[in-house]
TrEMBL record:
<keyword id="KW-0472">Membrane</keyword>
<feature type="topological domain" description="Cytoplasmic">
    <location>
        <begin position="1"/>
        <end position="9"/>
    </location>
</feature>
<keyword id="KW-1003">Cell membrane</keyword>
<dbReference type="InterPro" id="IPR003752">
    <property type="entry name" value="DiS_bond_form_DsbB/BdbC"/>
</dbReference>
<comment type="similarity">
    <text>Belongs to the DsbB family.</text>
</comment>
<keyword id="KW-0812">Transmembrane</keyword>
<dbReference type="Pfam" id="PF02600">
    <property type="entry name" value="DsbB"/>
</dbReference>
<keyword id="KW-1015">Disulfide bond</keyword>
<feature type="transmembrane region" description="Helical">
    <location>
        <begin position="67"/>
        <end position="85"/>
    </location>
</feature>
<dbReference type="GO" id="GO:0005886">
    <property type="term" value="C:plasma membrane"/>
</dbReference>
<dbReference type="GO" id="GO:0009055">
    <property type="term" value="F:electron transfer activity"/>
</dbReference>
<feature type="transmembrane region" description="Helical">
    <location>
        <begin position="12"/>
        <end position="31"/>
    </location>
</feature>
<keyword id="KW-0143">Chaperone</keyword>
<feature type="transmembrane region" description="Helical">
    <location>
        <begin position="43"/>
        <end position="60"/>
    </location>
</feature>
<dbReference type="GO" id="GO:0015035">
    <property type="term" value="F:protein-disulfide reductase activity"/>
</dbReference>
<dbReference type="GO" id="GO:0006457">
    <property type="term" value="P:protein folding"/>
</dbReference>
<dbReference type="InterPro" id="IPR023380">
    <property type="entry name" value="DsbB-like_sf"/>
</dbReference>
Length: 169
């Protein structure tokens, strides 16, 4: 059995990220689940991971470029997974220790300085501590962490695997 090419794997990573975003938008617009600041931050890193994979797919670079794109895919997935873990930590806190709920993201960006709004997005607030949906006992950031772990592993595999140049006939 032949392994998928580096290019094919990048396409799979990109399509996986598109699928994750589709699920996120479905949950937001069809199920009415409003994303919290940490959810939005995780979305940014899903998109970033997908963009790196799409660029690698379209560019189809040689060895150094392949390794650079793979590193960027793995790094963005790793950072996104860190934000998922932060949200899981907030969800595990007792109610009296959870941070207070903040205003909506739209309100923050309209009212606060950009740096303050960005700080709240990255740290999370009480809205992020609320578990609004679970599947098999795992909340949304838990499933997002699983997805980031898979994306990280694919990026790492791309980084460490052997390189075969693409031949065009």
């Amino acid at each position: 059995m032949q392994l998928p090419s580096i290019r094919q794997t990048n396409l799979v990573i990109f399509l996986g990220c598109c699928g994750l975003m589709a699920v996120g938008y479905f949950m937001q617009y069809m199920l009415g689940l409003e994303p919290c600041p940490l959810c939005m931050t995780q979305r940014v890193f899903i998109i970033l991971t997908g963009v790196w994979a799409l660029l690698a797919y379209l560019h189809s670079p040689a060895l150094i470029g392949t390794r650079v794109y793979a590193f960027l895919v793995a790094l963005s997935a790793l950072i996104g997974g860190g934000f998922s873990m932060r949200q899981l930590h907030l969800q595990s806190l007792p109610a009296e220790l959870a941070p207070t709920c903040g205003p909506s993201i739209d309100y923050m960006f309209e009212t606060f300085p950009f740096t303050k709004a960005l700080e709240v997005m990255l740290k999370g607030d009480g809205n992020c501590a609320e578990v609004v949906w679970t599947f098999m006992g795992i909340s949304i950031p838990g499933w997002t962490l699983v997805a980031f772990a898979g994306l990280f592993m694919l990026g790492l595999w791309q980084l460490l695997r052997g390189y075969k140049p693409v031949t065009v006939l």
